[in-house]
């Protein structure tokens, strides 16, 4: 536990601590909670997969990505149209292209095809988007979301457009979502400590200096964009097979602001930050949903407050941007915090401990 800790040690120790906390919480929910709590926890893990996927690109590159939800939609709809039973598709999308209405695949095959398609689209869009920096790149990413949403909304023969695509097989369980989340935590942390992750953060802090030192800025950005989009598409697949019914609005601005709030609240520069942010936002949303229904509190009959959860998300984003732009954890991972506490308990200087590479 000294300043000479290797990136491998940081990756292993940090991943283990985060995974253990998530594993324990996931295992306790079915024991202590109701069926509704299990569903909330499943949704939490799916959101966490998406926010960690977003962190891989946005947190390490410093480029605001407003288009990430597009890949949730691609993953969700691809898996849904491939896995939904033929008898349902012959009723809902009988004229689907490529003969899709005439066959069905198992869940894992459909999920794999959805992942491959998402990677292909991410690679193509990543080459174009990452030729830009800052606001132009963010606007280009937003355009990807608008293009995908428009396609889902108007390709009636494949997606049913604004009408619900229903009777998607329910395959997502709490255990599946939890296991995938643990894998994503390890991937996100490994990427951060990798050579590509280091180069990407160097390009974030000073693109000109990074290029001068031999960093291929476009290359590392495209790699992170593709990896990020692939993980986000997995979250889309799990969402489709949890809800059982989809429409294009599921993957548009509402979920965009939810995931961004989770990332910004905890801190986008770390892997630990999104986990903290997702936890706090999930708890806050459940509390505000209860308050919005006008419960009786301490004998007071509170009025109904429609839209309170959305108001809560807006307030969180504004307050974080005002008072804590770097998020609650800032640049500190959970293992960094643990080492600092250990140093203080043993009378040593925290400055002697390892610091996260930026």
Short description:
With 358 residues, this protein is an all-alpha fold. It is built from 15 helices and two strands. The protein has a domain at 7-248.
Sum up the structure in keywords:
disordered C terminus, mainly alpha, 358 residues, two-stranded antiparallel sheet
Describe the protein in words.
It is a single chain. This protein has 15 helices and two strands. It has a domain at 7-248. The longest helix has 27 residues, at 35-61. 70% of the residues lie in helices and 1% in strands. The protein is mainly α and 358 residues long. α9 (195-205) packs across α11. Residues 352-358 have low confidence and may be disordered. A two-stranded antiparallel sheet has the order 1-2.
Structural class: mainly alpha
What distance lies between the first and last C-alpha atoms, to the nearest angstrom?
A: 19 Å
Mean pLDDT: 89
Percent range of helical residues: 55-70%
Largest sheet: 2 strands, antiparallel
Shape: globular
In DSSP terms (H or I, runs of 4 or more residues), the helix count works out at 15
List the helices and strands and how they pair.
Layout: H1 7-32, H2 35-61, H3 69-83, H4 86-92, H5 107-129, H6 134-154, H7 156-159, H8 174-193, H9 195-205, H10 207-212, H11 217-243, H12 253-266, H13 272-292, E1 296-297, E2 300-301, H14 308-323, H15 334-345
Helix pairs in contact: 1-8, 2-8, 2-11, 2-12, 2-13, 3-5, 3-6, 3-11, 5-11, 9-11, 12-13, 12-14, 13-14
């Amino acid at each position: 536990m000294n300043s000479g800790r290797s990136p491998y040690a940081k990756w292993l120790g940090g991943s283990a601590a985060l995974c253990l906390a998530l594993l324990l919480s996931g295992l306790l929910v079915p024991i202590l909670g109701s069926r509704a709590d299990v569903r909330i926890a499943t949704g939490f893990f799916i959101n966490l997969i998406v926010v960690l996927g977003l962190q891989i690109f946005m947190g390490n590159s410093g480029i605001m990505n407003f288009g990430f939800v597009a890949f949730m939609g691609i993953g969700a709809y691809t898996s849904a149209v491939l896995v939904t039973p033929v008898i349902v598709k012959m009723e809902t999308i009988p004229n689907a292209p490529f003969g899709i209405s005439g066959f069905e695949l198992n869940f894992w095959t459909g999920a794999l095809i959805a992942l491959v398609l998402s990677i292909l689209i991410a690679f193509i869009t990543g080459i174009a988007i990452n030729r830009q920096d800052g606001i132009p790149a963010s606007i280009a990413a937003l355009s990807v979301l608008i293009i995908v949403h428009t396609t889902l909304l108007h390709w009636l023969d494949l997606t049913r457009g604004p009408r619900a695509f229903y009777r998607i097989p329910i395959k997502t369980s709490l255990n599946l979502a939890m296991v995938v989340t643990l894998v994503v935590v390890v991937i996100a942390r490994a990427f951060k400590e990798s050579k590509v992750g280091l180069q990407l953060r160097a390009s974030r802090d000073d693109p000109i200096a990074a290029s001068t030192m031999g960093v291929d800025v476009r290359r590392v950005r495209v790699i992170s964009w593709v990896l990020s989009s692939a993980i986000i598409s997995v979250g889309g697949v799990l969402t489709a097979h949890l809800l059982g019914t989809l429409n294009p609005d599921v993957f548009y601005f509402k979920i965009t602001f939810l995931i961004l709030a989770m990332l910004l609240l905890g801190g986008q520069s770390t892997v630990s930050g999104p986990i903290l942010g997702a936890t706090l936002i999930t708890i806050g949303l459940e509390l505000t949903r209860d308050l919005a229904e006008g419960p009786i509190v301490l004998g007071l009959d509170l009025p109904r407050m429609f839209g309170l959860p959305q108001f809560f998300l807006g307030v969180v984003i504004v307050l974080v941007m005002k008072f804590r732009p770097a998020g609650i954890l800032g640049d500190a991972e959970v293992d960094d915090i643990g080492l600092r506490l250990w140093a203080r308990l043993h009378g040593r200087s925290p400055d002697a401990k390892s610091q996260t590479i930026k």
